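Lab notebook, page 48
Experiment: co-folding of the full assembly
Goal: obtain a model of how the components sit together before planning crosslinking
Operator: M.T.
Materials (sequences as entered):
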Amino acid sequence: DIISTVEFNYTGDLLATGDKGGRVVIFQREQETKSRPLSRGEYNVYSTFQSHEPEFDYLKSLEIEEKINKIRWLPQQNAAHFLLSTNDKTIKLWKISERDKRAEGYNLKDEDGRLREPFRVTELRVPTLKPMDLMVEASPRRTFANAHTYHINSISVNSDYATYLSADDLRINLWHLEVTNRSFNIVDIKPANMEELTEVITAAEFHPHHCNVFVYSSSKGTIRLCDMRSSALCDQHSKFFEEPEDPSSRSFFSEIISSISDVKFSHSGRYMMTRDYLSVKVWDLNMENRPVETYQVHEYLRSKLCSLYENDCIFDKFECCWNGSDSTIMTGSYNNFFRTFERETHRDITLEASRESSKPRAILKPRKVCTTGKRKKDEITVDSLDFNKKILHTAWHPMENIIAVAATNNLYLFQEKVN
Amino acid sequence: QDTQEKDKAIPPERAEEAKLKAKYPNLGQKPGGSDFLMKRLQKGQKYFDSGDYNMAKAKMKNKQLPCAGPDKNLVTGDHIPTPQDLPQRKSSLVTSKLAG
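Observation: model returned without errors.
Model output:
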């Protein structure tokens, strides 16, 4: 099924994917062993479960898709792993735990579970724990429902490890992980008169260290930073980030392509990155009037906006991510291409995630899109790009140079070559 | 002659906008405004009612997935069509020339 979200956990040992069918698949990194040196860093399936089912909203006669929009891991606090997964309307907390022991020698029941005849129980025995084949179980621990009228686009776990936010097109709610029957609304941009609606919330995230700070991006290309200490309802922003637009270059497409599809804080907490249709921008939280860095992802599409509008591709929502040290950023494009940008050296590279272009363990060859008339060998022209092959979801291991790239219904894992 | 050409050069975005306006002259006055936001807020396939939805789901389970081909999509006279029988078509903002 089509992968709709990809997320590493805090150590990078687990990688979760969610798909359009409401399923979550978790991969675990194999431990290095001397006997199998080649399998270092390989990820294998650890657990699979059905997180969400399709539902029907009776009041509006609308189908609620089971597609998993986002998965966010909780930091590990005991032997079990916890993650939040959400579809358009409902967030669920899942517990993934391992079972490798089984109790044997019960007094009241047989090994196959049948109750023993009371007169057969002649002596008392203490059950013993015996090893068994590893079993990974996923169980839903909390269901956070009925808090969103519109479609949930983001969830973000707070650095206090006790609360998290969920954002839909017009509202952001704050939850406590232990409480499912109540959530606090912290942002509400719904106008009194819906005719006056000019923008929607497209993404939201908590600051990685300051538990009172979060940001949300809009369809108009702006980002608002809010401080929950200033008021209970954060409709008034503390900071407003917007790049001034050149009025002479404004067109019908300007607002659509400026819509931010993803916002991510850097690990350091000093910067944030936004993705709009054609570029990725890095903002310094201390400077609101313009980004500090701008990277063109696929500028050659600017002269194709008309057809991209007609086939709806102009509304595609690409995500972006930082590497562990914040030195490199990555985002996807079309034709199964994805791009990484090194911030210090300004080096960028285009790579392809496809079976035809790479064999396992082979080094990826850089790709290039030809933008001028003369096409060199190995280059691809803009017109021959496959716009159905879009890389919307990518993730970077929190510490190592391992990246996960979702290409429609395939997941690719790439690793930096170690000499 | 070079500078003359540069002055006349139209930014690619504007050229694309002109193309779009030429194809769809009635396109909304408010660029990227309420229309496409409203469409975004209402995303999701609408059914007439829950009975319609449940019947369509039941039919989907019994039927094979429809394959591409014009003759398979011709559902006439056999039974009342459900949303699943109709060819998938995303609603677009651009209204057809037939409407108004």
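Interpretation: Residues 11-46 of chain B form one domain.
Next step: discuss with group before ordering constructs.
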